[in-house]
Amino acid sequence: MGMDVGGKEGGAMATMNVVPLIDILLVLIIIFMVITPLTPKGMNALVPQPAPPNTKQPDQVQQKTVVVQVLETGKVKINDEDTTWDTLGPRLTDVFKERAEKVAFVKGDDKVRFSDVAKAIDIMRGAGIDKVGLITANLEAGK
To answer: Under a CB-based contact definition with an 8 Å cutoff, are residues 48 and 86 in contact?
Structure first.
């Protein structure tokens, strides 16, 4: 198997047996396939889709949408209504008390730290909101 005998020079000629090497590689491939996660872990993001141009959104949709703004000054707003970090959770609980769809969006200024946005998302999830979406500047501009 691993050695050829004979030849023109009349001596023994050694060749490498690659069958065990292929077996080891196949076992390694199977191991890596098993330990690789099949589904990515993380938080699902819900991004609102912009309305087609030259169309006005109905007032019912405007009233149903709840947007929490995190300003770069450290202040927080709920649909242009000033609030504080301490009253954000109870206020959102009151807003979503009688709603069937518990969907809200977070909008942060350009210079806001991510930790502030994550804190707002955490408070929103604690207030019972099922889905939290992110609003970006391009999305708001309709691009």
So the answer is: no
CA atoms of 115 and 87, how far apart (whole Å) = 18
Token pair belonging to 99: 């709603």
Q: Round to whole Å and give the CA distance between 138 and 122.
A: 24
CATH architecture under which domain 59-141 falls: 2-Layer Sandwich (3.30)
Contact 93, 127 (CB under 8 A): yes
Report the alpha-carbon angle 120-133-88, nearest 5. 25
- More confidently predicted of 102 and 140: 102
Question: What's the predicted TM-score (pTM) here?
Answer: 0.55
Cα atoms found within 13 Å of the Cα of residue 39, Cβ hemisphere only = 4
Q: Where are the CATH 3.30.420.270 domain residues in the chain?
A: 59-141
Q: How many CA atoms lie within 13 A of 35 on its CB side?
A: 5
Residue 108 host element (H or E): strand 103-108
Query: Per mean pLDDT, which range of 59-68, 82-91, 107-116 is the poorest?
Result: 59-68
Q: From CA 107, how far away is CA 110, in angstroms rounded?
A: 10
